[in-house]
Amino acid sequence: MLPGVGRVLSCRTEAPDVVTHRIAWDGWEGCAPGQFNMLGLPGLGEVPISVSGGTRTPGEVLHTIRAVGPVSRGLAALKPGAALTMRGPYGRGWPVEAADGAQVTIVAGGLGLAPLRPVIRHFAETARARRVRLVIGARSPADLGFLQDYDDWRGAGIDLALTVDHAPPGWPGRVGVVTDLISAGPGRTVAYVCGPEIMMRVSAMRLQALGVDAGDIFLSLERNMKCGAGLCGHCQLGPVLLCRDGPVLDWARARPLMMVEDL
Amino acid sequence: MPDVRQSGAMGEAFVMDGGGIERLAAHLLAEGRSVVAPVARDGAVVYDAIEDPAEIARGVRIDSRPGHYRMERDGTAWFDHVIGPTPWKRFLHPPRETLYSMTRSDDGIEVEATPLPQASFAFLGVRPCDLAAIGVLDRVMTGGAHPDPRYAARRNGTLIIAVNCRVSAETCFCASMGSGPRADAGYDLALSELGTGAQTRFLIEVGSAAGSALLEALDVAPATEADLAEARWNAAAAADAQTRAIETEGLARDIRAAAEHPHWDEVATRCLNCTNCTMVCPTCFCSTTVEVSDLTGAHAERQQRWDSCFNVGFSHLHGGAVRQSGRARYRQWLTHKLSTWEDQFGELGCTGCGRCIAWCPVGIDITEEAASLRRTEP
Question: What is the C-alpha separation between A113 and A108, in angstroms, rounded?
Fold first, then answer.
């Protein structure tokens, strides 16, 4: 578990406290959508950060970081040329093959869009052959990230809907909760959901009410992680070691765990 | 009489006199091994590296009850002291170790690997519950997709001399967990103390080729049927003496079903969240990572340290800890030991050593709590 060293190539501000770093790292060989790396700075520590791009580009990976704690603040503040420690990829990602022959609904809340970005890109390539819906919600218009991708996704045939929790005067778009925009069917739908835990829970229940099978609803969960490799015990969610068995779980498995308080 | 030195095959049994323990320890020390053995110190039997066979605890017994542990001088037996607070994980998965170090410069960061440990331990006096616990730990630390290389290096260099129990402490419940009082596998040699005083002998069972090779250094004779019968009788007596038990049939299922049981609130009124149970538990493996940097900040080490699910920060996410209440933390610990460990690693995480009962400052008893959680409330 010796980390390699990455170097920031460029940075893009997604929202006031969110930045996407394009990082050069010799050890990077790509990964499955939804996997994560452990990013670190000497003296500060390491945190798990999902791969928001570069799943198929050896040597170069994108990570989107929200500055919330000491380590993520340090990482978010890095400028082009700065170095950081990198190891991974870890975890089991989004099972894109589960959607073979099905329609696709993708639901992103806030920074939940980051780990979904590689999935959206995957389905953008097949959006002409089936219906792919993408619902994005954020706290406010300023919190909507990855704006430059929206035209590409729409151009690829993805049915994209946006909403914000609250907006300043003049916002022409929707205001409301993301779960109101969720739709599915007709026929089998497979859903990929990422965002705050409460939003995922409500989204999954809404999808199920729309007739989507619990085994076809995938969520990416979050717990404290120290090692990423199934050895430190921190990311337990009941029977699940999230770094090893997740972070992506289907709703059939996640539901009983997410319904127990303080698990 | 056949030359036993040539025939010490696995599964065979031999006997040696009581002094053979010191010859065995002396031989292991002469081989250059770090010999870890029970030592009577600070009022307890602790496992520590010895330099002289005379340091091995002898003639002590322990009185171990909920929230209570006392060591007493009594007789001349070598191994009637059962266990002390030290779990063997302390040596295989140390409380703190440096994973690697990092140096910052204008050019970036240089990561320097910490050399793998060159351990060659001989664990002398591993009780069956603890032997089972080492097996549990092996499967956690080395059985997955990312084995811990430091644990593996230490473990691969470790020789295990197990000692079967003929005495049970009041806190023991290995018989119900199926791990003791007699070891059936996982050792290089397994010893059973027979007789007392001048009649003290050890039955030696061979569990590996490395164990067999040790016989050369000992003065052994083939075991008789009477020796084997005495060892079996002693172990059966130790099992019979155990007053605590956990029924393992349906255990994982029952504890899973008890996630919202009101008894968790009751335990939470007693539990101090002190972490003692997790520190003395031979299978608790959780660790955290801390940064230790010098004053300039240019050089930092990433260290691994034991952590405990009873620490609030253990489940910290942005916004605060997931398990804020003592109820949630005790539930995490007990449920992991007796239920979710099975989901995660295919077996239970408890081997019945009873340390968590003895070293709990308020005497919380995992066997009683498990029983209460399996009772439906009136």
Answer: 5
Give B 306-345 residues with CB within 8 A of chain A.
307, 309, 314-318, 322-325, 327-328, 332, 335-336, 339-340, 343-344
Mark which residues 215-234 of B lie under 8 Å from A by CB. none
Length of chain B counted residue by residue? 378
Give residue B11's pLDDT band: very low, low, confident or very high (50, 70, 90). Answer: confident
> What count of residues does chain A have?
263
Cα–Cα distance between B103 and B293 in angstroms, integer?
10
What pLDDT is stored for residue B356 in this prediction? 98
Contact A229 B343 (CB under 8 A): no
What dihedral angle (degrees, nearest 10) is formed by the CA atoms of A222, A227, A228, A231? -100
Report yes or no: B283 and B133 within 8 Å, Cβ to Cβ: yes
- Fold that domain A4-90 belongs to in CATH: Elongation Factor Tu (Ef-tu); domain 3 (2.40.30)
Structure tokens at B169: 């402490």
The chain-wide mean pLDDT, for chain B, equals 94
Instruction: Name chain A contacts of B318, Cβ cutoff 8 Å.
Output: 66, 68-69, 72
**A238 to chain B: closest CA residue:** B340
Q: Is A241 on the interface with B (CB under 8 A)?
A: yes
pLDDT digits (tens, 9 = 90+) for A206-251: 999 999 999 999 999 999 999 999 999 999 999 999 999 999 999 9
C-alpha dist (Å) from residue A52 to A63, A256, B1, B54, B92: 5, 28, 74, 62, 38
How large is the average pLDDT for residues A115-134? Answer: 90
Q: Convert the pLDDT of each residue in A38-59 to its tens digit.
A: 999 999 999 999 999 999 999 9
Task: Give the closest-approach CA distance of B315 to chain A in angstroms.
Answer: 6
Q: Does domain A96-258 have CATH number 3.40.50.80?
A: yes
Which residues belong to CATH 2.40.30.10 in chain A?
4-90
Locate CATH 3.40.50.80 in chain A.
96-258
Separation between Cα atoms, residue A48 and residue A73, nearest integer Å: 13
Q: Which residues are CB-contacts of A25 (< 8 A; sequence separation ≥ 6)?
A: A4, A5, A6, A7, A59, A60, A61, A86
Peptide linkage before B378 cis (omega within 30 of 0) = no
Q: Which residue has the higher pLDDT, B205 or B1?
A: B205
Reported as a pLDDT band with limits 50, 70 and 90, residue B8 is low
ipTM score of complex: 0.92
Distance CA A237, CA A223 (A): 8
Report the relative pairing of strands A132-138 and A18-24 from DSSP bridges: unpaired
Q: Residue B372: pLDDT band by 50, 70, 90 thresholds?
A: very high
At B80 the three-state DSSP class reads coil
Task: Please give the angle made by the CA atoms of B338, B342 and B346, to the nearest 5 degrees.
Answer: 145
The verdict on a CB contact (< 8 Å) between A40 and B327 is no
Q: Which residues of A touch B303 (CB under 8 A)?
A: none
pLDDT digits (tens, 9 = 90+) for B21-32: 999 999 999 999
CA distance B192 to B236: 12
The Cβ of residue A159 has, within 10 Å, a number of other Cβ atoms equal to 15
